[in-house]
Design a protein that fits this description.
By secondary structure, this protein is an all-alpha fold. Helices cover about 90% and strands about 0% of the residues. The longest helix is centred in the middle third of the chain and has 21 residues.
Amino acid sequence: MVEVNYIIFFKLIVSKSKAIFIN
């Protein structure tokens, strides 16, 4: 269960970083 939470958190960071790079 903890690993899944880390994966979701990592995906959120990646999506935010992509948005920053696009902007």
